[in-house]
Amino acid sequence: MSELKERLRADLTASMKDRDEVRTRTLRMVLAGISKEEVAGSAARELDDAEIERVIAREAKRRREAAEAFAGAGRGDQAAAERAEGEILAGYLPEQLGDEELAGLVSAAIAAAGAAGPSAMGQVMRLVTPKVAGRAEGSRVAAEVRRQLAG
Length: 151
Prior knowledge:
The chain has 7 helices and no strands. By secondary structure, the chain is an all-alpha fold. The chain folds into 2 domains: about 5-90, Hypothetical Protein Yqey, Chain: A, domain1, CATH 1.10.1510; about 100-150, Arc Repressor Mutant, subunit A. The longest helix is centred in the middle third of the chain and has 24 residues, at about 50-70. The radius of gyration is 18 Å and the shape is globular.
């Protein structure tokens, strides 16, 4: 079993003992997502830590989007609950890149590729994506690449 999955299960047990309903609900949800991912496809398999991080990142993104939707609909209490779950999930993800770090990686990739203009976006994204894997959302990376290539 992967180290991250063991940590999630241990934290679930601890949260149940502490009667922390939000953390318990969140960890159960993410462990269910991991189990679902493990049995998807032609044969069941164990996920490694990188795959588990992708599942957690996907769930965290769902929480952010749901919180925005609830806030837009005037459901502040439900939006706050979704944000709380998102914060718990963020604790299991690698440290996110800051804007300056991301801009530096993008400009280095642009220089390495000798890219100029928006038509080179795919070329730059191929260089940047492996470097930021799991540490920055794809839409954020694409926006920074677009911004730097545009001017």
